[in-house]
């Protein structure tokens, strides 16, 4: 149950970092302000947001690993009674 609560926080943060990285690369390729295209600040924002997004994605996969096993690999989770034996 703690994983579900953590995912409710993690998923919006992942979304924001993805949008930040996407907006930064868009501003770099199609600059609204010419100074942004020549600036390395936009590139650094894209780089940092991308790294954070990758790290959060790894954590997201770890937290959802039981679901991935059951849905993708067809491995059903053991019942709590079977784990106690």
Strand-helix topology:
Layout: H1 2-29, H2 34-38, H3 41-63, H4 65-71, H5 80-84
Helix pairs in contact: 1-3
What is the CA-based Rg, rounded? Answer: 19 Å
Whole-number count of domains: 1
- Assign an overall shape: rod-shaped
Low-confidence stretches: none
Helix content: over 70%
Number-wise, the strands total: 0
Beta content: under 5%
Structural class: mainly alpha
Figure out the total of helices.
5
Describe this structure in words.
This protein is mainly α and 85 residues long. The chain has one domain. 80% of the residues lie in helices and 0% in strands. It has five helices and no strands. The longest helix has 28 residues. The radius of gyration is 19 Å and the shape is rod-shaped. The two termini are 23 Å apart.
What is this structure, in a nutshell?
The protein has 85 residues and is mainly α.
List keywords for this structure.
single chain; 85 residues; mainly alpha; 80% helix; rod-shaped
């Amino acid at each position: 149950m703690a994983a579900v609560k953590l995912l409710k926080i993690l998923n919006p943060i992942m979304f924001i970092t993805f949008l930040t990285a996407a907006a930064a690369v868009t501003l770099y390729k199609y600059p609204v302000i010419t100074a942004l295209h020549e600036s390395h600040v936009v590139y650094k924002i894209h780089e940092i947001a991308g790294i954070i997004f990758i790290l959060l994605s790894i954590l997201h996969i770890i937290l959802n690993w039981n679901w991935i096993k059951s849905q993708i690999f067809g491995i059903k989770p053991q019942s709590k009674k079977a784990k106690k034996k």
